[in-house]
Amino acid sequence: MINLNLYLATAFLVLNLITQILPATAEEATVPPSNAAEIGNKLNSVSQLSDVQPTDWAFQALQSLVERYGVIAGYSDGTFRGNRAMTRYEFAAGLNAALDRVNQLTAAGLADKVSKEDLATLQRLQEEFAAELATLRGRVDTLEAKTAELQANQFSTTTKLTGQAIFAVNAGTQADADNPNATFFSRTRLNLETSFTGKDLLFTQLQAGTGNSNNDAATFLQREEGDFRNRLVRFGENLLQENFEQLFFPLDTLGVTLEDLGLGLAKEDNVDAIRDTLAGTVATQSLEAGASPEEALRIRQNLIDAIDTTREINNFLQINSTLDYSGASPDLNLYRLSYTFPLFEDFRVSVFPQGFASDYVDRNSFANNSAGNFSTYGLVNNQLLLANDRAGAGAAISWNPGKSSFTIRGVYRAQQAGLVNTKPDFTNSDKQGGLFDDPNLGVVELEFLPSKTFAIRLQYSGGTQDGEEYNVVGANLELALGKKVGLFGRFGYAFNFPGNIQPTSWSAGIVFPDFLAKGANLGFSVGQPLIFQEKDNLLGFFNSTQTNYEAFYRLPINNNISVSPILQVITDPGNSQANTIYTGTLRTVFSF
């Protein structure tokens, strides 16, 4: 190492440029002054340097540099730090810059400003540092060549391309169930980020995967054709047997069964067939009991509606247990498209023909990224608040008045904005479509962020879902306990939900950043997607409360690759007293 002041006495011309290009640490020696935040402005007087005294042995050299050349620059705190050590390469970089400066003076006809003594000093230093100068010049030539290549082959002057690929191996089990096979699936996303003014953003995301509707173990085990179908069969046969025995006679007195009478439901292939057969048979029994045809039709339709509502609830619970990155279509499709721009200071607007409400509200530092932390769909967002966060089109705003601790956000999403249907049809799942027809959802969020360690967000969502009004209030909070512990929680309460019920939901968890390794995260979370009130137990289907647990450990292999083992446990799946589901996942994420 070389002491900076040692060369100052004999090569003060070199020091002018060294002090301009040298940052605070040797590792940053290649950073130019314009990018080094600590380098201050050029000096007019050596007295501006607080750590340089007239009694210092290098004072005269510094004074000469200021007065004769006017090129000395101190650090932003007003110091010179003359005793800081530097490498020979750092000194050679300064020497090379000094030679360039001499050439500039000569070319400008100012050679007389460079004394013979300075030129002699530079010549000796050039000879002594010939090897280092040659190395530096070689590096500069290589850097210039690479820069030229990047400029010639860059993707776009306005657009940045990034991407992410997730590979996952998943398996699961449930006692007394048709267990799924272990599966391997993936999801790949390509992001194009374009800015035309430097303050706006046109965001385009393409997605493809290898999944299907029952891709991961939890989704498969909670599918409609599983335990839900069996519960529907049991409910339907109990109802038919009760009605039959009220009309005729107890079956056990003759030793016959519903199957013997041709009334069994287990033989039906799917839930639709079970529903239609059950509703038709109940309507027939009502006629036989003396009901009018109109009343029998009403009883039939009410039973169909009630069964369809239980199916929606079961589907809601299933989706909340799904891995967020499973089920991506193998077809490359436009997954997100939005344009965000500032309308005026502190107020931003986004419009999106394809996107999600969760892109704009309900964010959380510890549970919001299925590629980096929790994977369970219902633990990365408040699905009760967002009505399972379906894709759609709409607009969003974000207002942070005066850059204060308060931010107001709002988003409107029409789930089927691209569908044109002038005749409302509530007999199918597509409903009306269009930008302002069912289904749609609006969310308003007030965030209070008093510090970087704490945030609370109060939320309201309202709209129309499946032909019915939908209103939910929610809360989202996070708290960092130092740099090693993070806490989060979400809560939701629905004033009305499909079936006119008022459920609540919640989730909470803890995350340990940099656990055992820098960039590694350990996390635990638990949540209950739908908690029914006693009066909300439709058809007696829901006699318990589903609880989702998840634990993960994310280990970064490098800046672009991470591996995460994940354990998921679901008790009382489907809000029924079914056996517990266990799943395990190995998630590998590639970012580029």
Unreliable residue stretches: 1-39, 424-430
Using the coordinates above, name the CATH class of the largest domain.
Mainly Beta
Output the radius of gyration: 35 Å
Give the number of helices.
12
Helix content estimate: 25-40%
CATH superfamily of the largest domain: Porin
Please outline the major beta sheet.
16 strands, antiparallel, barrel
In order across it, which strands form the biggest sheet? 5-6-7-8-9-10-11-12-13-14-15-16-17-18-19-20
Shape: elongated
CATH architecture of the largest domain: Beta Barrel
User: Which percent band covers the strand fraction?
Assistant: 25-35%
Mean pLDDT: 82
Structure notes:
There is one protein chain. The chain has 592 residues and is of the alpha+beta class. The chain folds into three domains: 2-153, no CATH class; 159-178 and 185-216 and 322-591, Porin (Beta Barrel); 224-319, no CATH class. The protein is 28% helix and 32% strand. The protein contains twelve helices and 20 strands. It has helices at 4-8, 12-21, 59-69, 88-107, 116-128, 130-153, 217-221, 224-247, 251-254, 271-288, 293-321, 377-380, and strands spanning 2-3, 39-42, 73-75, 85-86, 159-174, 183-194, 201-209, 333-344, 347-355, 392-399, 406-414, 440-451, 454-465, 468-481, 485-496, 504-513, 521-531, 547-556, 561-571, 581-591. The strands form three sheets. It has a 16-stranded antiparallel beta barrel. Helix 2 (12-21) packs across helix 3, helix 2 (12-21) packs across helix 4 (88-107) and helix 10 packs antiparallel against helix 11 (293-321). The protein is elongated and about 125 Å long.
